[in-house]
Write a structure and sequence with these properties.
- The complex is a heterodimer of chains A (224) and B (257).
- Chain A has 224 residues and is an all-alpha fold.
- In chain A, 75% of the residues lie in helices and 0% in strands.
- In chain A, helix 1 packs across helix 2, helix 2 packs across helix 4 and helix 8 runs antiparallel to helix 9.
- Chain B is α+β, with helices and mostly antiparallel strands.
- Chain B has two domains: 111 residues, Roll (Ubiquitin-like (UB roll)); 129 residues, Fumarate Reductase Iron-sulfur Protein, Chain B, domain 2.
- The chains are: A mainly alpha (224), B alpha+beta (257).
- The structure holds protoporphyrin IX containing FE and FE2/S2 (inorganic) cluster.
- The site of FE2/S2 (inorganic) cluster has 13 residues of chain B, from loops.
Chain lengths: 224, 257
């Protein structure tokens, strides 16, 4: 029984399904995370209390972390093995450059975007959660960490570039999610694009608004 | 264009056998009528090569009317050349400019070893069909029309999928060399009809397995296959294959030993 299950999951379609489901789990997390971050616009108390509230619920935090970690590992496993399969499937490349007819920039950069996002996530955790990289870390003061972090131009710039990369990855990922799970119908295919653009844009714009807010002193303008 | 027809510069992949390394050779042809097909242009070139004592260029073809699927060539970065919805044999030289440089390559896919020059061995597609692209009942003589009702949309969709001529352009065009459009078309054209229902789940499982075993890549939804398909087979069939495969994977009972 288990052999059969592994065989199905290990097939090309099975691994795509794993990639789609785990990707959407992370998208759900990103929507929540982004919304939470927007509290920084309401001032230090709002965001710091929210952080304290989360810290006071270890079960919630750790379930979330484990689900995300497992999802990311499975997602990266599926992406890496499928990528290797694809490379092996065409050992000799074409000499003429391929005329692009349909594929999008977002689709062609999935295999660049993925690893860039993974490196970004590691950096991001070291920066805000662990406090090992970036400027002086104020334990428990999320607001100060955000303000001092994003006042350094190259850190703000790096975050903004990574958020754009995530936006492209999510756009093609969410659109693919429907196709991979078999949702394709002439009546609501246009809706699929709209949903993919809307979610990718919301997440990217929401996250980017924070470093931009700090740069333009909308956030932490009173801090010298 | 002069009175004497088109002049073309050709850059063509030559390879003696599957073992040979192969390489491009440059050719020039003159006096090409814009109303010739692409294969007729190659015939003209081959006659010239033979007259000069050379070895003609090997390329696959059979019906020359766009239905057998033998004639796939990768022309200037596109399977079957610049005109969409058209096989190489149905492509006319008026689709090119006088004096244009045309690069001709074989399909590039590990599962399609090169036999000679531009001919590849597409047996991998036959293996996928052998794994389940059939209905295993004796159908006897043709039944009375309308004894088995088929909803109109289903028969239409089934016919759209059955347009696939197995030329392999989808695989040649796919950045992942994936055979999902081909396999999806074959799974769908049977799975949409009443006669295809009894084996529908088993068919999805075994044809996808044969596709994976042959060493094709996976789909990442670029859509290049549909754009390259001379029969415009839609990627909606890939979504349908995914549905069939997922539901078969969850519900089909493995065969008893
Ligand atoms: C090393 C890390 C990663 C790699 C190599 C990677 C690679 C990929 C690849 C190759 C796809 C396939 C897209 C397709 O089917 O066309 C994909 C899909 C996706 N990715 Fe990632 N990715 C990574 C990290 C992430 C992260 C951090 C997120 C979320 C922020 C994410 C979200 C998604 C989503 C939602 C999909 C859609 C799945 C589908 O239906 O195909 N990925 N990824
Ligand atoms: S030779 Fe038959 S399809 Fe072109």
């Amino acid at each position: 029984m288990m052999n059969r299950l592994f065989e199905i999951i290990n097939s090309s379609i099975g691994r795509k399904v794993i990639m789609a489901i785990t990707g959407i789990v992370v998208v759900g997390f990103l929507l929540g995370h982004m919304t939470g971050n927007l509290l920084v616009f309401k001032g230090p108390d709002a965001i710091n209390h929210y952080a304290e509230f989360l810290q006071s619920k270890p079960l919630l935090i750790w379930t979330n972390r484990i689900v995300l970690l497992v999802s990311l590992i499975l997602h990266i496993w599926a992406a890496t093995t499928l990528t290797l399969d694809a490379w092996n499937a065409r050992p000799v490349p074409y000499a003429s450059s391929q005329r692009i007819l349909e594929t999008t920039y977002a689709a062609r950069t999935m295999r660049w975007g993925g690893p860039i996002i993974a490196l970004y996530v590691i950096y991001h955790l070291l920066h805000f959660t662990v406090g090992r990289v970036g400027p002086q870390h104020f334990e428990g003061d999320v607001y100060m960490n955000i303000v001092t972090g994003f006042r350094i131009p190259y850190i703000a710039g790096f975050y903004i570039i990574c958020m754009l990369a995530i936006g492209f990855h999510l756009y093609h990922g969410i659109w693919s999610f429907f196709q991979t799970l078999g949702a394709n119908h002439p009546l609501y295919n246009p809706l699929r694009r709209i949903i993919a653009v809307a979610i990718a844009l919301t997440i990217t714009a929401g996250f980017i608004s924070v470093p931009l807010g700090v740069i333009f002193r909308v956030i932490g303008g009173d801090i010298p | 264009m002069s009175e004497k027809g088109m002049k073309l510069n050709l850059k063509i992949w030559r390879q003696k056998s599957s073992k040979d390394k192969g390489g491009f050779v440059d050719y020039k042809v003159e006096n090409i009528s814009p109303n010739m097909s692409f294969l007729e242009m190659l015939d003209v070139l081959n006659e010239k090569i033979i007259l000069e004592g050379g070895e003609p260029i090997a390329f696959d073809n059979d019906c020359r009317e766009g239905i057998c699927g033998m004639c796939g060539l990768y022309i200037n970065g596109r399977p079957h050349g610049p005109q969409s919805g058209t096989t190489t044999c149905q492509l006319h030289m008026r689709s090119f400019r006088d004096g244009e440089l045309i690069t001709i390559e074989p399909w590039r896919c590990g599962a399609f070893p090169i036999v000679k020059d531009l001919i590849v061995d597409r047996s991998a597609l036959d293996k996928i069909i052998m794994a389940g692209g059939f209905i295993s009942v004796s159908t006897g003589a043709a039944p009375e029309a309308n004894t088995i009702p088929v909803p109109r949309d289903d028969s239409g969709n089934s016919m759209d999928a059955a347009q696939c001529i197995g030329c392999g352009a989808c695989i040649a065009a796919c950045p992942n060399a994936s055979a999902m459009l081909f396999t999806a078309a074959k799974i769908s054209h049977l799975g949409l009809l009443p006669q295809g229902q009894p084996e529908r789940k088993k068919r999805a499982l075994s044809m996808v397995k044969a596709m994976d075993d042959a060493g094709f890549g996976g789909c990442t939804n670029h859509g290049e296959c549909e754009a390259a398909c001379p029969k415009n087979v839609s990627t909606k069939f890939i979504a349908r294959m995914n549905r069939d495969y997922i539901s078969a994977g969850l519900t089909e009972e493995p065969e008893k030993e």
